[in-house]
Amino acid sequence: MKEVKHKEKEVKDAKEAKELLQPEANIGMIGHVDSGKTSLVRAITGVWTDTHSEELKRGISIRIGYADVDIYKCPKCRTEHYSIDKTCPNCKGKSEYLRTVSFVDAPGHETLMMTMLSGAILMDGAILVIAANEECPQPQTIEHIAAITINGVKNLIIAQNKIDLVSKEEALKNYKQIKDFLAKTPYKDAPIIPTAANLRGNLSYLLEAIEEYIPTPKYELNKPMKMFCVRSFDINRPGTKVKDLRGGVLGGSILQGKLNVGDKVEILPGMDNKKFLTEVRGISTSKGKIKTTRAGGLLAIETALDPSIASNDKFRGQIIAAPGLLNDSVKSIEFEFNQLDRTLINEDYTLVINEQIVLVIGAMPVVGIIKNIKGKNISCVLNHAMVVEKGQKIAISKRKSLKWRLIGYGIVK
């Protein structure tokens, strides 16, 4: 694989180095349920992202999971020279730090497609996990490909997982199925890496592919700050004294601009159609607390909000932005509807007036009722206020056999 060079970081001491190791890119871990996405994240990062009690009980991802990892390269070894260790596992020599990336572990179950779509907005690239012991494609394999296509994700790697569970002949048959499927998508040239998550097999080659095929995006750091919130928490323990209470914590990824402790930010659309103005009291990454941050990777910000209103992901889907950057929220929108390629969804979904649909606007799902259709232009009334921008892409799902199916996207007019 070709050499990938990252901008060298000049640091004066360990403390400054720690502050610079903010994740540079968000990589989605997507694919059909039980293909091994969460196991692969754990194999790479050491973090099991399913932590919610219901996830542990059911054995599937329900919420979006997150984990960060540092990527290193041994300058001496010629094969299997990428790792997550400062010391090369092969020659025991010193490895060179390349960058830190964040993984966004998306649910694969069909009933959780709205959650997956909410996380897709953060992805700079993705790893599509396909189980080698199953036919390809599976239903959510198709929908997840459609989701990242809608969100403009251009960089994709295929992890042909569970390769340890099949024979050579079965692996090659599955490989051909993957190639035939990808030929119908924008990702026909995506690399395919055989992996065995539970045995940590071929992780070096997967990390090498990440470095080659999913580069750090060029972020617009000079623009006013805008961030999507995908998790929110009350981090106070029961019984904490009032004087020791800490404000609500919002987790997500900055899309543009920079953020500093002490900055004022707006949270839109807020609650009951009322936006919030609050102060940033702390910023944290997996490396620890920092005083300033910028677009790229996943982070959490501590605010001056009452922690009770931030508990249990109540701010999921909200936009955090520099004051005055975004328009006020609206309860009706008009968009140009574009149906997904029928080679992906195999059906023609017709929309009709007064039909309920689900729109994922940014990182927030919202129910809409169609009020007017004129050609490709559709007008919708939303069940709660949303912040939208002209030209913004929104994912659209329609109910089919008691399930919501991703059928296309709209471009806000």
What does this structure look like?
Helix 5 links the parallel strand 5 and strand 6. This protein is an alpha+beta fold and 413 residues long. The chain is 18% helix and 37% strand. The protein is globular and about 55 Å long. The protein folds into 3 domains: 194 residues, P-loop containing nucleotide triphosphate hydrolases (Rossmann fold), CATH 3.40.50; 96 residues, Translation factors (Elongation Factor Tu (Ef-tu), domain 3); 83 residues, Elongation Factor Tu (Ef-tu), domain 3 (Beta Barrel). The strands form 4 sheets. Strands 3-2-4-1-5-6-7 form a 7-stranded mixed sheet, with helices on both faces. It has a 6-stranded antiparallel beta barrel with strand order 8-9-15-12-11-16. Strands 17-20-19-18-21-22 form a 6-stranded antiparallel β-barrel. It contains 9 helices and 22 strands.
Total domain modules: 3
- Total strands: 22
* Corresponding CATH architecture of the largest domain: 3-Layer(aba) Sandwich
What percent of the residues sit in helical stretches (DSSP H or I)? 10-25%
Question: What can be said about the biggest beta sheet?
Answer: 7 strands, mixed
In the CATH scheme, what's the topology name of the largest domain? Answer: Rossmann fold
> Helical segment tally?
9
CATH H-level superfamily of the largest domain: P-loop containing nucleotide triphosphate hydrolases
Please give the CATH class of the largest domain. Alpha Beta
What average pLDDT do the residues reach?
86
